[in-house]
Amino acid sequence: MSTQSLYELPKSALIIPLLSGETIDLSDYQGRYLLLVNTASGCGFTPQLQDLETLYKQVNQQKKNTLMIVGFPCNQFLFQEPSVDGARQCLLNFGVSFPVTHKIKVNGFKAHPVWNFLKSQQKGAVGLGTIAWNFTKFLIDEHGIVVARFSPKTTPMSIEKYICIKNEL
Questions:
Q1: Beta carbons within 10 angstroms of residue 41's beta carbon
Q2: Residue 70 lies inside a defined structural domain of this protein
Q3: CB count, 10 Å around CB of 77?
Q4: Spatial contact of 42 and 80, defined as CB atoms under 8 Å apart
Q5: I want to staple 40 with a disulfide (CB 3.0 to 4.6 A). Which of 27, 56, 80, 104 is the partner?
Q6: Helix (H) / strand (E) containing 37
Q7: What is the CA radius of gyration of the chain?
Q8: d(Cα 34, Cα 67) in Å, to the nearest integer?
Q9: Per-residue pLDDT at 55 exceeds 60
Q10: What local confidence, expressed as pLDDT, does residue 1 receive?
């Protein structure tokens, strides 16, 4: 039987070290929407960090504690996330307050289990089940079901409607 919910993954896969030195347990966010994003500080899409922060604050002001965004820095695409210090500085520059993990891999045999799960649930535009670039986004509902995958070109603010519509049903 295949795993259908993020929260069915082993607990060890859901506890992830953050850049801050703490850890995050994704299972703590069951009952809320999760938006998981692979990030990079040297990418043309990096300004989306500011838009992700705006989305994070806006949704949670309108509907208290509805959304948690987690950034996952990744250096697999043209080495656009080379250093931890660069990632930290970038987050400060864009005013990011949502959690950001240590660098992970999103593709290949060393890909993080959470990202393997995400790719298995939403294969992407060409159906290959890989991440093609930085700032690919996955929206997970309150039950841990991956409800949408968004390309790097999808602006964070356009994702708000998916959260609000689903939350009003």
A1: 22
A2: yes
A3: 20
A4: yes
A5: 80
A6: strand 33-39
A7: 15
A8: 6
A9: yes
A10: 47
Domain that holds residue 59: 36-168
Residues near 146 by beta carbon (within 8 Å), at least 6 away in sequence: 6, 117, 118, 121, 122, 138, 139, 140
What number of helices (H) and strands (E) belong to the chain?
A: 5, 6
How remote is the C-alpha of 163 from its chain's centroid? 14
Give domain status of residue 129, yes or no.
yes
Q: What is the CATH number of the domain that holds 122?
A: 3.40.30.10
Residue 74 placed within a domain: yes
Q: Is residue 10 part of a domain?
A: no
Separation CA 45–CA 32 (nearest Å): 26
Please give the pLDDT value at position 165. 55
Contacts of 104 (CB under 8 A, 6+ apart): 16, 38, 72, 73, 74, 111, 112, 115
The per-residue b/e assignment along 127-140, b for 16 or more CB within 10 angstroms, e otherwise, is eeeebebbbbbbbb
Mean pLDDT confidence for 22-46: 90
Q: Tokens at residue 115, please?
A: 């990202």
* Nearest of 51, 21, 47 to residue 35 by alpha carbon: 51
Q: Which residues contact 80 (CB under 8 A, 6 or more apart)?
A: 40, 41, 42, 43, 134
Over range 66-71, report the average pLDDT: 93
Give residue 8's region: left, alpha or beta (phi > 0; psi -120 to 50): alpha
Residues noted as catalytic: 43
